Amino acid sequence: MDLPEGSQLDGMAAKLKRCIYGLKQSPREWYYRLVEYLGPFGFVITAWDPCVLVHKSGDLFLAIYVDDITLFGATGELKEQTISVLKTEFKVNDMGELKWLLGIQITFTDDGITLSQTTFINKILNHFSMQDCKPVSTPIDSNH
Fold this sequence. Notes:
Elements: H1 26-38, E1 43-45, E2 52-55, E3 60-65, E4 68-73, H2 77-89, E5 100-101, E6 104-109, E7 112-116, H3 118-127
Antiparallel strand pairs: 1-2, 2-3, 3-4, 5-6, 6-7
């Protein structure tokens, strides 16, 4: 990073007051800022994953991946309040109901939640020219 002309002094260094996007420590600083901001609203870091925050009521989970946030929980007042709280401090794009996450297709039905990687599998089959192969339930003899 170069200082503007006229502000450079021999033997002196510049101290950044804020973390600049693109520096190595930027994601860490953003994470700490987010966790510190959401703390007073009842969110705490889970013991099993530092990138998952849970509301003290246990009804809402917040998953962080790089600079993306995914909310998991029943649609209701708590979820709407959390989104509005995030919008007051951060630039937020509400993408609506979750359909894709990290290459996994997510489908919500009355019977439950289905996770699928069909697109990824088709991409791999196409890459190796095996899109017309015959599927089998067990690719090798089960008693082998």
